[in-house]
Amino acid sequence: MNFQLTEEHLAVQEAAREFAQSELLPGVIERDSEAKFPHEQIKKMGDLGFMGMMVDPKYNGGGMDTVSYVIAMEELSKVDASASVSMSVNNSLVCWGLEKYGSEAQKQKYLTRLASGEVLGAFCLSEPEAGSDATSQKTSAEPNGDHYILNGTKNWITNGSSASIYLVIAQTNPSLGHKGISVFIVEKGWEGFVIGKKEDKLGIRGSDTHSLMFTDVKVPVENRIGEEGFGFTFAMETLNGGRIGIAAQALGIAAGAYEMSLAYSKERKAFGKPISQHQAIQFKLADMATQIEAARLLVYKAAWLKDQGEDYVYASAMAKLYASEVAMNVTVEAVQVHGGYGYVKEYHVERLMRDAKITQIYEGTSEIQRIVISRKILK
Ligand code: CAA
Predict the structure, then answer these.
(1) Which pLDDT does position 145 carry in this prediction?
(2) Which segments of the chain belong to CATH 2.40.110.10?
(3) Residue 199 among the catalytic residues
(4) Does position 20 have pLDDT exceeding 90, yes or no?
(5) Domain with CATH 1.20.140.10 in the chain
(6) What is the fold, at CATH topology level, of the domain defined by 7-120?
(7) Stated pTM of the model
(8) N or C: which terminal CB in the chain sees fewer CB atoms within 10 Å?
(9) Any idea where the Acyl-CoA oxidase/dehydrogenase middle domain is (predicted)?
């Protein structure tokens, strides 16, 4: 067993760390307060190869492994989880699904632009009445000659207005249940496709989360990914990998809050000495560090299993479940270590605490991860 990162992994870590400090940190508080999407920063992340890290270079990707991807996600999420969720959705949910299951024509037309960061993608599964219960899709795509007619509403879509390319899951044959669900590539600007209201969120406020409405949108048959009826499996398999990305985001949020708490505890004095010299704070720091290390091992293992071509469904669910709980625990403690300063925006940890909560909700709630894990245990 080798726990050491390779030269390549260390280089990715260094590049992501440097980018986070120089490009994401300035303005992150303002973007959060004003719910402003980090357009400029995401563009630069594309130029640096962060938006299609695992995609084959022949489709403009970085050709890197999943371990590199989680390392980058962790570093960027320490500073700006709103930028990192855009990156995660583009990499894990959109590029991965297209590269694995798309036709050569779809890859040439869409993947090449998504992987280079020229355009952003969105993954559209959730609906007003189909969140955790993803099989209950109401959005329909009715076959009509050389195209489908798409109707329905999607909710809580990350990159909702900033994306140009949308992977939309829809019912093509309701009588078949989840086996009658298909997946389509839809472009922004097509007639009948309307971007709905932007959500005013507790955390990840810089990311743009929207509802989307489709009214009689004509989707060409060649924009269906895989066979009719393949959409639910596509969504589940894509989310298995997506959960590794969100687990890495949660890990980064926790690690960012911990690093700030450690630094603050050495500077802030109380009762005549730095607060890091008080056991009450030392025990908090020790617990934070231990939980983060355990989460990191789960996240890296899930990524490693994926890179080895082994089953990673169980590992990714465990990594997301645990890392998101650690993100919540650690950020709450980080606010406590900072005392009154922790409760104001300037010190960042209150934002990280708000951002942490979503990691227990999106790409499958903690309860969904427990379902995935317990099914495996009891099989
Ligand atoms: N991997 C691969 N296949 C899976 C799977 C998985 N993790 N989970 C289920 N499946 C397959 C099953 O094998 C089954 O296939 P067959 O019929 O061929 O045997 C099929 O899917 C149906 O499975 P179930 O009968 O188990 O389905 P279910 O209705 O009981 O629910 C569920 C399964 C695990 C609860 C699923 O609905 C689920 O994962 N829900 C959560 C959805 C989710 O994560 N949404 C997040 C939205 S996306 C998002 O947040 C992105 C963003 O913008 C940030």
Answers:
(1) 96
(2) 122-231
(3) no
(4) yes
(5) 234-378
(6) Butyryl-Coa Dehydrogenase, subunit A; domain 1 (1.10.540)
(7) 0.97
(8) N
(9) 122-217
Q: Which tokens belong to 259?
A: 């690093």
Name the closest-CA residue to atom 22, ligand 1. Answer: 178
What are the pocket residues of ligand 1 if the criterion is a CB atom closer than 6 Å to any ligand atom?
89, 123, 125-126, 132, 134-135, 157-158, 178, 232-233, 236-237, 239-240, 313, 362-364, 368, 371-372
Q: If DSSP codes are grouped into helix, strand and coil, which group holds residue 196? A: strand
SS3 call for 344: coil
How far, in Å, CA of 252 to CA of 78, rounded?
5
pLDDT grade for 2, boundaries at 50, 70 and 90: confident
DSSP secondary structure, 20-79, as one string: IIIIISTTHHHHHHHT---HHHHHHHHHTT-TTTTS-GGGT-----HHHHHHHHHHHHTT
- Alpha helix (H) residue ranges in 119-176: none
247 contact partners, CB below 8 Å, separation of at least 6: 70, 295, 298, 299, 302, 316, 319, 320, 322, 323, 324, 359
Tokens of 75: 């570093």
**Does domain 122-231 correspond to CATH entry 2.40.110.10?**
yes
User: In this structure, what token pair is assigned to residue 176?
Assistant: 């078949």
Q: In this predicted model, what pLDDT tens digit does every residue of 78-118 receive, in sequence order?
A: 999 999 999 999 999 999 999 999 999 999 999 999 999 99
pLDDT, one tens digit per residue, over 282-328 is: 999 999 999 999 999 999 999 999 999 999 999 999 999 999 999 99
Segment 344-364, tens digit of pLDDT: 999 999 999 999 999 999 999
Pick the atom of ligand 1 nearest to 158's CA: 53
CATH 1.10.540.10 location in the chain? 7-120
Indicate the SS3 state at residue 1. coil
Task: Count how many residues are written for the chain.
Answer: 379
